Amino acid sequence: MGRLRQKGKAGAAKKLHCSLADFRRLCIGIFPREPKSWERANKGSSAPTTFYYTKDIAYLAHEPAFAKKLSRALGRGEWISAKSLEENKPVYRLDHIIKERYPTFIDALRDIDDALCMIFLFASLPSNPPIPPSLIENCSRLAAAWQLYIMRTQSLRKVSFSIKGVYYQAEVMDQTITWLVPYQFTQNIPADVDVRVMLTCLELYQTLLGFFYPPPLDAKRDENAAGQASEKSNKPVVPKVKVVEVEGRQVSGEDEFIVQPSKSEPEAASSLPTLQSLKSLPQSINTSLFAPYTFWLSRETSRPIFEFLIRLFGGRIGWPESSGGGSPFDESDKSITHVIIDRPVVDRSSETDEQRQRRLKRKDIQPQWDEDEDAEIEDAEPQTATAGALEATAALRAAELAAEAAGIDPSAFEKEIAKSQRKSKKKSSNDVDKAEADMNMMLMSNKQKKLYEKAKRSQNKRVLESTKLEEKKKSLQKQKRKQGQMIP
């Protein structure tokens, strides 16, 4: 007697002689259909079932034929035939699905957020049996190509650091695109995550992002983990308008056309630009924020993030060989103006005079300074923070100088500082406790949240009852004291 099967478990997968995982991968371009009579199609059953056209399933039926021929050749020992079959293995393409789903380029840009997040996620994952190294390498190249496009077109608008990673927001062809890039930490894939479904979506996203030919990359630099520096061509994509100086003022190469009201048509004045319409126009973005500066990355900083941000805003950046190859200059370069460092100050008693002179000409900055400047997009030079310095110490020194200039007694100033520090410490401890409680609530499941809220309600109820009893006790004691005073 054969093995019993539940009704409706085989279906289209049985006709294709493939597993459910293979069927999910194959049916990307095959859409489910809604039958005219649900009961008749499902044979009277009310169980949820997905229906497909028979001709669509028959179109996919060529897939198991190759596996059947290959296994038959291997079983008979026909090695030449098996090798020929393996070399001529059929490969399916997803180009037609991209064209059907996204008729125009703008439609593809509107749906590219998820594709970018998935590509950057798999580019940071370690290789394992389900995720081969070739897949990770392809995702890394697509991610580098996208960042090169954003850098050359200078389309980045916002940057934000969070616990999940770095959020970027760019504007491409008037479409706002937001994607998330994980931090460069060792990632562990959870056991309860079905990677096969994600790989199916990733296969479509790789075709979507790689639909056009990517920029040419230098193979040697790419092997040395050069990342965005692997590109061969360094010519800017956006042409610069020639600017000449005439009688002390700068004039661009193109004349600006100013619309004037028509005398013969008074109605045409209503279509002229107004002050409100000019305010709503997109403002110019300072894309040369870091152009006068040359940065050097220390080995403990995240190179991909800062290379992307600094090069995008016109700055030059270098890094040590331990962070990857392809650096345009080394640490001894005299043009370096800033050093991005994120470690305590080391003992410099053994440095030479040349090293000391070189260090004094540079400014040590923390990584957060670069992100803050990208978020604000200001042209003014910021106030750099040296490594290991604290903002609270700088604020305290400034307040001390201001108090001395105002003629305040130093002892009174110190008392006020100690009092404010106690208040801020108490407030910060309360804020930390509240933040920890909120974080714990976010990590709880729905069942745990309900139990926690129930316990908190009962606790608040007990506190309220005890408060009422205390108030009642105090009122009774007060009445007794009054009665004792009234007795002669």
TrEMBL record:
Record's compositionally biased regions (Basic residues): 475-488
Show the segment(s) annotated as Disordered. Answer: 340-384, 416-488
Instruction: Extract one GO molecular function annotation from the record.
Output: RNA binding
- Coiled coil start-end: none
Q: Which GO terms describe its biological process?
A: maturation of LSU-rRNA from tricistronic rRNA transcript (SSU-rRNA, 5.8S rRNA, LSU-rRNA)
Q: What is its main location?
A: nucleus
Q: Which InterPro entries match?
A: BRCT_dom_sf, PES
**Which residue ranges traverse the bilayer?**
none
Q: Could you tell me the superkingdom of the organism this chain comes from? A: Eukaryota
Q: Where does it live in the cell?
A: Nucleus
Spell out the Acidic residues composition-biased ranges: 369-381
What Gene Ontology cellular-component terms does the record carry? PeBoW complex
Q: Where is the composition biased (Basic and acidic residues)?
A: 340-357, 428-437, 450-474
Task: Give the matching PANTHER family.
Answer: PESCADILLO - RELATED, PESCADILLO HOMOLOG
Task: Report what the protein is called.
Answer: Pescadillo N-terminus-domain-containing protein
Query: Which species is listed as the source?
Result: Lentinula raphanica
